[in-house]
Design a protein that fits this description.
Radius of gyration: 26 Å
Helix content: under 10%
Oligomer: single chain
Strand content: over 45%
Shape: elongated
Structural class: mainly beta
């Protein structure tokens, strides 16, 4: 491989043909194509999982959900936005960092999670942010559906956006 030109650079490719006999129109024996190099987008495949490991919950019970945000790369990401909105039937009570290794050193507040204003710390390729959200079940019956999303920050393109949301559904007994 050669050097990669910087974005904004113009590259000119010229092709010329020649003949061993007399050419009555020599002015059309050459053609050029000019291409402007654009920056390749920075890409990072972020993903999220969320689970409490249960299929059923009870009214009034404390239930803890583990949320894992991972970066499969190829680029590092700083300030991806984690959103864990309020949902009917659950009240968030505490947020703590999860199992190591994890990039979580200072967990977000419940307000930051629910408002979608929590920016994750830097995640290199292969790194994860793990946290636990403890809730109290307030639903008297039916199901509780608890979801979370992660969004790439400005300047980063996520090539697999389908894995940026996770949902845990439990029957209230």
């Amino acid at each position: 491989g050669g050097l990669v030109p910087l974005a904004g650079t113009e590259l000119t490719n010229t092709a010329t043909v020649g003949a061993t006999t007399s050419d009555p129109v020599p002015g059309n024996n050459s053609a050029s194509d000019v291409t402007t190099v654009t920056a390749a987008p920075d890409t990072a495949d972020l993903s999220i999982s969320k689970s409490n490991g249960l299929a059923e919950v009870s009214t009034g019970a404390a239930v803890t959900y583990e949320i894992v945000v991972s970066n499969a790369g190829p680029e590092a990401v700083t300030a991806a936005i984690l959103h864990d909105p309020a949902v009917p039937g659950l009240v968030k009570t505490t947020v703590t960092c999860g199992a190591l290794p994890s990039q979580c050193v200072a967990p977000p507040t419940v307000t930051e999670l629910e408002s979608g204003t929590f920016a994750l710390p830097a995640l290199a390729t292969g790194q994860s942010y793990v946290m636990r959200v403890t809730t109290t079940v307030t639903a008297p019956s039916g199901t509780v559906t608890n979801g979370a999303t992660v969004a790439a920050p400005a300047g980063i393109t996520d090539p697999v956006p389908g894995n940026n949301a996770a949902t845990d559904v439990d029957v209230v007994v």
